[in-house]
Fold this sequence. Notes:
The protein is of the alpha/beta class. The chain has helices spanning about 90-110, 130-140, 160-170, 180-185, 200-210, 230-240, 270-280, 290-300, 350-355, 375, 380-385, 405-435; strands spanning about 10-15, 55-60, 115-120, 145-155, 170-175, 215-225, 245-250, 290, 320, 325-330, 345. A 10-stranded mixed beta sheet has the order 8-7-6-5-4-3-2-9-10-11. The protein is globular, with a radius of gyration of 22 Å. Mean pLDDT is about 85; it is low at about 1-50.
Amino acid sequence: xxxxxxxxxxxxxxxxxxxxxxxxxxxxxxxxxxxxxxxxxxxxxxxxxxxxxxxxxxxxxxxxxxxxxxxxxxxxxxxxxxxxxxxxxxxxxxxxxxxxxxxxxxxxxxxxxxxxxxxxxxxxxxxxxxxxxxxxxxxxxxxxxxxxxxxxxxxxxxxxxxxxxxxxxxxxxxxxxxxxxxxxxxxxxxxxxxxxxxxxxxxxxxxxxxxxxxxxxxxxxxxxxxxxxxxxxxxxxxxxxxxxxxxxxxxxxxxxxxxxxxxxxxxxxxxxxxxxxxxxxxxxxxxxxxxxxxxxxxxxxxxxxxxxxxxxxxxxxxxxxxxxxxxxxxxxxxxxxxxxxxxxxxxxxxxxxxxxxxxxxxxxxxxxxxxxxxxxxxxxxxxxxxxxxxxxxxxxxxxxxxxxxxxxxxxxxxxxxxxxxxxxxxxxxxxxxxxxxxxxxx
Length: 442
């Protein structure tokens, strides 16, 4: 088994992909991460401050290792290496405490729905019995009437009929990571012995795409590599007929830039790559699949809201719980430094509302005021929103910077603005031409 390769982050997703308490004692939290425990104040005690936002998506790390050794993994290949200290599998006692905290949080905020994404490492390494117990424990702790949506983000190589039976039983949505055809995918997503994973993932996708299983398929997640042909990648992915695609920029920042991205340079390799895919996808009618990045950008251009945290001013409403019960913010902060994720909080001593006040979660500044002057003066600010928070990081100077992908985002957004504006104008002209002429004198 490898200690180094990702499946991917949720909400989306990266964002998304979405999620019997045992007698085993909870795994201890290492002392160097401990923070003083404080009581969870009641709503009345919070009258002198704005109420904290609620958790809408919980990323639950059920297994901290992986069976692939992907070289672009944000969990194992970046600054935060604390996965080495953590239990491989989340303990039943830890799950029970997570469930209790989640139930308390929903009851306090009178929330009727929350999403949990089972994550890793590779979550399927935990096995169907453990995953079954986790979902049952979480659902059993929710307030009456509350709904738990569950997703799992996997590299797919262990996906089989037994796991899919579990997904049908609990309504678990399955997101699978794949970077394109065999050559594109196996450039990065390999086994520890160097073998490519494409053949095994493709077999899993054929199983998942069968009529009896398709309802559980959330979509494909692809990490962009500008050395791969954009149209070749797109066509190879839609050949599997996924319900949705997520195209993710590889994680990097000003101090650890992504491949082919020169910090401060004006070239746009990632913008050009994404524009090529957009121009193939957008005019197709009917569209062969949804692409979250493009759909979000179109919505933002038309005055709507983003469905991804890579664009727009998304609220920080995602929380991560590690296999040892540590509470952290969005998982992508692992790519910045080994301190940005550290909260000193854990599910054994701290509530989710306490955790949300931490600067790495909802306690950090948001909106235009949190952005660099260059961003606030930018004509595409309302669509860009500064890009993904982790991509703004510079060592020793924090996050008040444009995205390391600033030129690429500007290129993509301006292109989509022009295309959508032309379509809106064409619709307007057509509506005027089709309108009945008004009688004279009216």
